[in-house]
Fold this protein.
Amino acid sequence: MSVEEIGIDVGVLKHEIKKTYASVSSEPHAEFVFPTGRAWAEDLDYPEELARVPESAVESFAGVANPFSLGRLEPGERVLDLGSGAGTDSLVAAQMVGDGGRVTGIDMTPEMVAKARGAAAELGVANVEFLEGEAERLPFEDASFDVVISNGVIDLIPDKDVVFSELHRVLTPGGRIQVADVTIQNPVSAEGRRNIDLWTG
Ligand SMILES: C[S@@+](CC[C@H](N)C(=O)[O-])C[C@H]1O[C@@H](n2cnc3c(N)ncnc32)[C@H](O)[C@@H]1O
């Protein structure tokens, strides 16, 4: 379904999403309508690498499931973390791919990107970078990555066709996508689709 058909103002939606996730970054112990933090990641059976990820990242973990339950990443792989937030999944991935691999996290909320960079420095890994940018316009060459991971991000984006087309473009032929996300079982009413609070929550 196109953004026009949904009838939502994408500029307003992005503004509200950034506001929500700036709060998750700056007030990680506040009450949100979704679960956050290390206890939540542990409930999701995150791999052992989670233990080394600094609290400064994990306290703002806001994923919806565990993309590593679809398989571990291999040493040497080039990984894109789409909507990397405060960096938990990227920093797990950086440990899995090791010095011969690299991880790039991209997120449109500047507070999240700053937090992820701080956590990477704290962990002391040199194979990960965090960029500010939008999933609909990825600033990467074609075929730049072996695997894309993403956690709780694509559900926030109205134009999913554009996102998947971008992921297909930046993945190397034969590359893979390990996405954890929210899906719906029943159609949402037109009124519900236009409700910004339902998108951001
Ligand atoms: C639910 S949080 C998940 C963050 C992280 N993946 C995690 O597991 O903690 C969603 C993240 O997606 C980012 N995001 C939402 N829409 C985006 C878009 N169109 N482009 C880039 N990032 C986006 C938000 O800024 C937020 O940090």
About this structure: Strands lie at 78-82, 102-107, 128-132, 145-151, 171-180.
